[in-house]
Specification:
With 341 residues, this protein is α+β, with helices and mostly antiparallel strands. Helices cover 21% and strands 18% of the residues. It has two domains: 4-161, no CATH class; 171-334, no CATH class. The strands form four sheets. A five-stranded antiparallel sheet has the order 4-3-2-1-5, with no helix packed on it.
């Protein structure tokens, strides 16, 4: 994340996230190769006359709170931070070079920093994105060999296709804009189809929890516009344990499990299918009594004073993942599936 915040992104135009947030262009002169050997200075107060003045460690990042490098002592697996550090950019204490080479990642002599002067470039250097080669993007040249000044600002990867579309922050900003109103209508239709709530009078002494319309522009893999997405999200942070919810735990798939399934499928020659459940959390049955106000733009005429008593789990509720998991687990067991040990 430290590096991503200081790199070009489609989210902000002609800026890095760091500059958009702070108003200052970030410095990158201090960046060093991840995993390289680092020698950190040991203060005189922490050593005797005959002790070493530095400690050999591995560089694994940067401090979030102050200007310092994040270092790991590979002998005792201890993390420390230090500003007094000298790196050996071509050496790694845990053979990072061999790991990169075996994995087929863009590694060259343990150092992933390539310049125009490199005579031996990796295979991926010459791969193309559209009509521009990746290596030439890194060097700041077009596929015709022209400079930035001659061709204009180089668009990293497929950013040229990204449309700068503003995402509303509140309902008032989305109201009156056809694309967002259509997205909200689709979300409301989905809520009604799933019978997410019943309109009722708010009982005395009860308070409805808040909600928020969340707007997001979805893009395709090539960077072109896919769709406008609006989601009605409950403000779960206002829920109180024992009143608005009980248990929240729901197991999730680990990456190791996914890799295991793919490995078995490949070994057995099976077909592996992936599926997505639209508005998955709305399929979770809610046991607790939870009220929310009618969503802006969709109040029922003549019943504006009524509130929604939720029957289904709404996105944002603390118990929503658990409610959905219980339903899908029950269904899969009924279909004859068994838990994997």
């Amino acid at each position: 994340m430290y590096l991503l915040n200081r790199s070009p992104t489609m989210a902000v135009k002609q800026k890095t996230p760091e500059e958009a947030w702070s108003g200052r262009k970030p410095k990158v002169s201090h960046l060093k190769v991840f995993g390289s050997t680092a020698h950190t200075w040991i203060p005189a107060a922490k050593r005797t006359k005959l002790d070493l003045k530095s400690k050999k460690m591995m560089l694994t990042g940067y401090s979030d709170t102050h200007k310092a490098y994040r270092l790991v002592d590979v002998d005792i697996d201890q993390v420390s931070f230090s500003r007094d550090e000298e790196s050996e950019q071509d050496e790694s204490p845990r053979s990072v070079r061999s790991i990169h080479s075996e994995a087929g990642s863009p590694s060259h002599g343990g150092n992933t920093d390539f310049t125009a002067r490199d005579s031996k470039r990796p295979k991926w250097w010459h791969n193309t994105i559209g009509d521009v080669r990746i290596g030439e993007i890194i060097e700041g040249r077009s596929s015709q060999g022209k400079s930035k000044q001659e061709t204009g600002t180089i668009n990293f990867a497929l950013m040229a296709n990204i449309q700068e579309i503003y995402e509303p922050q509140v309902f008032k900003e989305a109201k009156g804009r056809p694309e967002w109103e259509k997205a909200m209508e689709a979300e409301h239709e989905s809520l009604m189809k799933n019978q997410t709530w019943d309109l009722t009078a708010l009982p005395s002494g009860k308070k409805p929890i808040g909600y928020k319309w969340v707007y997001k522009v979805k893009y395709k893999a090539d960077g072109t516009l896919d769709k406008y997405k609006a989601r009605l999200v409950a403000k779960g942070f206002s829920q109180r344990e024992g009143i608005n919810y009980e248990e929240t735990f729901a197991p999730t798939t680990k990456m190791s499990t996914t890799r295991l399934v793919l490995a078995i499928g490949a070994q057995q020659g099976w077909k592996v299918h992936q599926m997505d459940v639209t508005s998955a959390f709305l399929n979770g049955d809610l046991k607790e009594v939870v009220y929310i106000c009618q969503p802006e733009g969709f109040q029922v005429a003549g019943k504006e004073h009524l509130v929604c008593r939720l029957k289904k789990a709404l996105y944002g509720l603390k118990q929503a993942p658990r409610a959905w998991y219980i339903n899908i687990d029950r269904y899969l067991v009924q279909q004859g599936f068994q838990w994997s040990p």
